[in-house]
Structures are given as C-alpha cells and as structure tokens.
Amino acid sequence: MPEPVRLALALLLAAAIAVPASARMHAPYRGHRIIPANAGVLDGFTAPAAAYSFRKLRTAYAGSAVKLRRTTGGTQDIGFVGNDFDTATAATFCAATTCFLDTWYDQSGNARHLVQATAANQPQYIANCNGSLPCARALSASTVLLMAGTVTPAMPVSLSTVAHRNVTSGNACYLLSMASAAPHNQIITPAAANSWQLFGASGSIIATAADGAWHAAEGVVNGASSVFNIDGAETAGTITGSVVAGGFNAQNNPAASSQCSQTEAVVWNGYALTGAERTALQQNQRNYWMPLPLDTFAAPSGAYSLRKLKSSYAGPAIRLRRASDNAEQDIGFLGFTGFTGAPIDTAAANAFCASTTCFVRTLYDQSGNTRHLAQVTTAIQPAFLANCGDGLPCVRVTNTQQVELTVALPIGASMTLNAVARQTTRPTPGGFLSCYFAGAGQQQIVPHADYDILYIVDGTHNINPAGWTALNWHSLTGVFAPGVAGVGLVDANAETVGTMNVIGGTNLYVAAGNETPGNVCDEREFIVWFSASTSGERAALHANQKSFWSIP
After folding, report:
1. 37 Cβ contact list (under 8 Å, min separation 6)
2. What is the mean pLDDT of residues 165-174?
3. Helices vs. strands in the chain: H and E counts, helices first
4. How far is CA 221 from the centre of its chain?
5. CATH 2.60.120.200 domain residues, the chain
6. Per residue in 402-440, pLDDT tens?
7. Which end of the chain, N or C, is surrounded by fewer C-beta atoms within 10 Å?
8. What architecture does CATH give domain 3-288?
9. Global pTM value
10. Topology (CATH level 3) of domain 302-548
C-alpha cells in the first residue's frame, strides 16, 4: 500500500475515534463504553504478521477469538458478538469453574495461532479484568503461549500490546516476543518497577509505565529510527533488531511473583508503523480497553470535572463566559491522551479566552442526571484557569461571596462526597473557611483556617483525616452514614473512621468562599453519591485521581 494511502487511512481511523456518541455503537454487556463502530481497528493498516485480541481486529476475520479449557473438563472456541468478545458464551462455558487459554487465534489471516497444550502452563481466562472486559492472566513462571512453526524477522519490526503488571517484586513479564530463542524482538516489563522495555538483538528503550495500571504500547525496532510509545508518550532510541528465526509468543515466562494480564498483541514483520498509525492505534486501544474513572462505579447522583468521567457522557465539560464581551461558549473534552483519560480541551478554552479573563457559567453533570451546576450572576462566577501552575486547569474561587453553582439533589440515608481540590492561601487561624469542595446541606468537605486541618463535617460531628496540607492538591472523600460508619480520606492515606450522619439539605454547593476575605480555593473535580462507597471503590478512585491530576 502506498505511504500516502496508509497515512490517510490511519488519520481517518483517528478521526473515527472522535465522532459523536450518536454515531457510535453501544455494547450493553460492556457497561457504558462508547467504542468505534462497525470496523476492525486494523482494517486501515498494513496487514500484520500476526494479531491476537479479545476483540475483533479485522472485519475480514471470520474465526474465533480463543479456545478455552475449563478445569472440570472440555474445551470450547469462543468467538465474537459484533466486534466484541462473546463474554456471555464464555461465562456459560466457565460457569462454576475456572477457565484457561488453550489457544489464542491469529486474526491476521496467516493462521499463526498461539497454543499451549500443557494445562499447567496455560494463562488463566479472566472475564472481568478491567471494567468488565476480558483478559489472559499469567500466574506462574512457566505460563506461555507459543506459535507453531517459524517466522524469519525482517527489519523493521513493529510490536503492539495492551497489558498490565499487577505486582513488581523486582521481576519481569515477557508480554510479546518475536523469535523462540534469544535474541528476541520483544516488549517486556523489566525488573525495574514502573517501566516497560522494547529491545532486539542489541540496544533497548525503557519507558515509564506505572505498575498496577493498564497500558497500550507500540514499539518499532528499526535501528537508529527505533521508537517506543507508551500511552501516547514516545521515546526514541537505537535498537539493532534480531533476525533469529522463530515463532511468536505472548505471556512468556513471567516471574512467579509477578502477575501480568494481556488483552491484545499484534506483530508486523518488515514494516514500521508510522507516527500517525501509532497515534491512531494508541487512541483506539485506550478508548476500547481502558475505562474512564466512573465507568466501573455505581452511578453517581452528580459528577463534575475538568476531565471526562464516564465514557457514556457525550456533552461538554463546562460553559465559559469571557469578561471582554460576556460571550459564552461550551468547552468539551479531548480524546484519550498520555494521561489516563480524556482531559478538557484547554486549547479551545484558551482560544475563546484569549486576551481576557474567563469565568465558569456552568459545570455540566456527567452522571446522566442532568443536574448541571449553573451560576447566572456574573459577579459571583468563579474564574477558569487553563494552567493552575502545574500545566493543568482548575476553577478558582476568590470572591468572598462566591457560591459556585447550586443544584437541588435528593438526600438519601447515606452519602459519599469526593473532590480534587486545594486551599491556595493559608489565612490567620480561627474559624471555618467556607470553601465547600463539595457539600449538600450540612454535609461538607471543608478546610479549617487552623492551618493543615481538613474537616469532614455533618453539622454536628467532625472527622479530621490525616494527610491534608492546605497548599497542596489532594483527592478528598467523605462518607456520611448513620452512626459510626463515617469515613474521611485524603489521597491514599489510611482512612479515618468516626461518627457521621446525613443531616439533610436540598442543594449541592460547590466552591463557596463566603466567609473569610482573601481566601482562595481551586477545584478540579466533584462527585456525589447518595450511598456509602466501599473501601475498594475509594482506593480505586483516589489512585485514579492521583495519577490523572499528578497528585504526589
């Protein structure tokens, strides 16, 4: 295929990822994910040498995804429903037992299937690996899927995988290899924590990739033009490719104390993915395999953020008003980036707010309940900052009468409030600062003027979780439940438990600064549930917020 045609197809693929939700397909069993419609992700690419996935990668492919073996006996091929893995059939086959991968079928058309006949060495099939999506998980040092026959590597070689290392323990996971014997052209998670590595016969590129998180990787082994792309961030280097003939393998020899999972692996032999193709494939993989933070949570009562929180949400992030002419404009989200999700379109905000100041007219509710937070009084609208000193945007409250946006909410028996926020100034001690990072009625997350003290308050009781520093960004959670079931949590510190109740109230108040002159508060995210969250949910949300918003 001529290079201009390849580039055009790759760019068209990237554009398809960004189409409105109304033009995309919804697969109900996958929760509320929005995925590109009616096309295999590799349809516009040069044909790969081998392709393995728990989704359909090429429209022309008519075979199964995997062959599963269950411990109670028997094997069964599991195919696709549309472009998605047939999880329902897999669940029926694996009911009340454990399943493993006997075969991972090659979708390239070359019949280079990955097979493991020895039951003890087969990776385990996990039905709910990442936001209700399936994967293969390696649990022992001998877990490996191998291709029968050989392929002679021809430079350049391109490798792609979507995978996860759960436990480091100083050990490597070999995710995708080309050649049965060393040296390999390979993507691995090396012994070093929080890193992935691309290498060939000599030379390597090591890139940052946090352990305990899913990553999409594209590597090109091509001498001085080698490049390794992790989640959209590219690192260049020089790698001499191996030309040792052999087969492909995946899930190869992870250390016994590591646990690695994989959903997709693709190899191109004699072809270097272009920059446009790497970007298109990365965006598609992240859009499909990596859920946004609230995709796997119970539906919130209200969700507001300067990033996209739910894949099913198709509206804008905020509505801005600029001071120069009082014009207003909605600002939406970007597609998936090197962050762990889809941030607000700060370029569009900067263009609208050029040479003037912008204020937040509306924070749109991403929960699906259309409880948008709106402030029509211009004098008490908070400011929008595209860069709050760390390259990330925020909403800033400075007016002492400022109440950013209120909305009526039903009050339940229990409540969970969450916010990403900071208190920017540290006034003289004494008295509360009404900087409600989130609150309904008397339920509040509120910093105290007494320096580094945070209060989770219900109007009568206080919980003072550890870890709050007034001038720093934090991920904050308060759980209001009858009796002694209340919880306060700052970042990923130990939870503080105490007496806490749901007192009442009808409105959600966000970013209020209505008591102490000179107080400044910045906010990025607010979420409210009228239920008590679990400790696992709180830990997952805090980890996600800390990663996305670069909270230490």
Report:
1. 23, 24, 25
2. 73
3. 5, 40
4. 27
5. 3-288, 302-548
6. 554 455 555 567 888 898 988 887 655 444 444 555 555
7. C
8. Sandwich (2.60)
9. 0.62
10. Jelly Rolls (2.60.120)
